[in-house]
Structure formats: C-alpha cells, structure tokens
Amino acid sequence: MRKEKGMTQKQIADQMHISDKTISKWERGLGCPDVSLLGELSQLYEVNIEKILLGNLESNDLETGNLKRIKFYVCPDCGNVISSLGDADISCCGRKLTPLVAKPADEKHIATVVDDEGEYYITFDHEMNKTHFLSFVAYVTSDRSLFIKLYPEQYAAVHLPKNGGGNLIKKNSSRLYYYCSQHGLWIF
Fold first, then answer.
1. Considering the entire predicted model, what is its pTM?
2. What are 154-169's pLDDT values in tens digits?
3. Is residue 108 situated within a structural domain?
4. In a domain, 159, yes or no
5. Strand duo 111-116 + 119-124: pairing
6. Are 164 and 175 in contact, with CB atoms under 8 Å apart?
7. Which residues have CB under 8 Å from 62's CB, separation 6+?
C-alpha cells in the first residue's frame, strides 16, 4: 500500500509520528500496528480497516458494467443511497451495508405507467409521509440509469423519458426500481 502511494517508510512514519523502523517491522511481518493506529493507517492508505487486518487487498473480478446487475444500498441511519455495478464493500455511518434485494411489485407497491407523448408518467398509490414514503425511483435500461430522489409529503409520481433505449411498458429491456422506507426495494 505504501508503494502504491509512492511514499517511503520514513514519510509514512513521519506522518504517523512513529519510527521508520516500526513501519519496516510491519512490512516484514515482524509486528503489527497498534489498534489505536488503524484508523490513521486506513485514512493514509485509503483502505478499509477490515482489509488491513485481513491483509487482503485483492481486486474484485473485472466487471463489464452490465446495468442488469445493478445493486442498491440504503443507509438505515442517514438514508444515503449508493449503487454499484459489481461486488463492493459499501459502508455508511460506520455500518457495513448489504445490497437490497428487489421484490416484485405487490398490490401495496404497484406502479401505474401511462405512455404520454414521448415520456412515461408513473404514479404510485403510496403514502408519502415522514415515516412511510418512497425514497427513490431508478429507471434502468441496458446502457443507462436515471435516479430520481423522492421526498416525504410530495406526490409519488415521476416523468421518465422514453428515449432511454428500453420499453418500460413491455418490461423486458428496462427495469423500474423504487424504494419504500418501510418495506424495502421493489421492481416493476
């Protein structure tokens, strides 16, 4: 990790206020950093602490970026939404996040799609209050995704362009994801 950063042992040691001999010992496997130094090492090397402890910095398999494999993550504390196209270690607010599993739309989470002159107008018969609401809608085709953030106390509806390369009405070349704050991720 130090070499990836283009730094010497002395430079790392000076930044951490320790000796370069200590860095040398760590790199030769003759010692381990004190737990109190892991946070600083993590920031310095821009690496997850868990990866430092495991000594495992293997890359994920090369993904082709296929949007059909898109994964969504939502932080239960702050509501932050993150997406990825491949395997990823995602965390927010100090918690490791797992990808959401999309469920097929049910009668309480159904989308109504109207084909309206060059765009889709999509409505949801869903509560939109501060404790139960749709947080986002994502329209995903084979080569692009459009993310739309929704907020409590607004009308649960979105306009989507039809020129996205997919046909939402047929549901075979595009997908519509939406996230309910109480019941998780849904797919139409």
1. 0.73
2. 999 999 887 655 566 5
3. yes
4. yes
5. antiparallel
6. no
7. none
